[in-house]
Design goal:
This protein is mainly α and 296 residues long. It folds into 2 domains: 1-34; 37-291, no CATH class. It has 15 helices and 2 strands. The protein has helices at residues 3-33, 39-47, 52-58, 67-72, 89-101, 103-113, 117-128, 139-147, 152-161, 164-170, 172-198, 221-227, 242-255, 264-274, 278-291; strands at residues 137-138, 207-208. The chain has a two-stranded antiparallel sheet with strand order 1-2. α11 packs across α12. The chain is globular. The termini are far apart. Bound molecules: calcium ion. The site of calcium ion (CA) has 8 residues, from loops. Calcium ion binds next to loops.
Length: 296
């Protein structure tokens, strides 16, 4: 063999080894990405009686696990949320403008469900400033990831992502309890997503808050199933549409007894069902007081 062909042979060998290593690396990556993280969840849904095609519709977007998002929810503090901003004059003005632009929808929702239209406006203002920020977190993915948290190995991964400060604040035991509770809660919400898929709602493309709430009124899927209302009567419920959003909020409030609520305290109790937060309730009623009347 000449020196030249020896060099060619050596070059070919290096190339072959290179290709082999590349192929090995790629196959390792593929095999790591291949297992479906939501498989246990899908099997549980099947066992609970949901149909394969409906489950497949929910997961047709091939959602990915949202560990970082789940870890981030441990840093959320309600006290950090500034409810007072919604009572300032510019915010109330925004509410007034919305009430004026959408007075027909508000009047219709108010009359259909027997709910004060000003409270509907106040809720839509505080939740998303009338759809200005409805959240970008993929709903199926985040709720499914929460639902996986009954597995210790997944909780270990989330725990490892928390800062030392958060770890000290929660403690492992309370953290585990919290995530186990959230897993139960999220599984019920995933069931609601399958029910919506059965009704041909395109849940796979839904995006919303880190806790899975969607649309202008920030409804969880279970609330959408129960209280979602087709305000503009186009045959589907769209929580990103002002008519449907107004009607759905009104339907929700009626569902929690708004019509029977006479005193301030009784009204506070109904709004508390929308969001379990005292400052939230006070802010919503404070805005509604400032907006009165909303339907003229
Ligand atoms: Ca509609």
């Amino acid at each position: 063999m000449s020196a030249l062909s020896r060099r060619h042979a050596a070059f070919a060998l290096i190339l072959a080894v290179g290709f082999f290593l590349l192929a090995f690396a790629l196959s390792a990556e593929v095999s790591e990405a291949a297992p479906d993280p939501f498989r246990p969840l899908k099997e549980r849904l099947l066992k609970d009686g949901f149909s394969g095609p409906s489950i497949a519709r929910v997961y047709q977007g091939q959602p990915s696990v949202q560990f970082k998002t789940v870890a981030r929810t441990f840093e959320l503090r309600e006290s950090k949320l500034n409810y007072d901003q919604f009572l300032n004059p510019s915010s109330i003005e925004k509410g007034r403008r919305f009430a004026s632009e959408h007075r027909t929808a508000l009047r219709d929702a108010g009359q259909t469900y027997g709910v004060d239209p000003c409270v509907i406006v106040a809720i839509l203002l505080v939740e998303t400033q009338f759809g200005s920020y409805t959240g970008k977190t993929p709903t199926v993915a985040v709720l499914s990831t929460f639902a996986l948290m009954d597995h210790k190995s997944y909780r270990d991964r989330i725990w490892a992502m928390l800062s030392p400060r958060e770890k000290a604040r929660w403690g492992r035991e309370a953290f585990d309890r919290k995530l186990m509770d959230r897993s139960d809660w999220a599984y019920r919400e995933v069931c609601a997503l399958v029910r919506l898929a059965e009704d041909r709602v395109r849940v796979e493309s839904l995006r919303g808050s880190v806790m899975g709430a969607v649309g202008w009124p920030q409804f969880l899927p279970s609330s959408l199933v129960r209280y979602g209302a087709d305000g503009n009567r186009d045959g589907r419920v769209d929580l990103f549409d002002p008519w449907d959003a107004c009607h759905s909020v009104a339907n929700y409030l009626r569902g929690y007894g708004w019509c029977r609520a006479r005193t301030r305290e009784e009204k506070e109790k109904v709004i508390y069902q929308y969001n379990h937060s005292r400052p939230y309730v006070q802010t919503v009623l404070g805005i509604a007081d400032r907006l009165q009347p909303c339907e003229s």
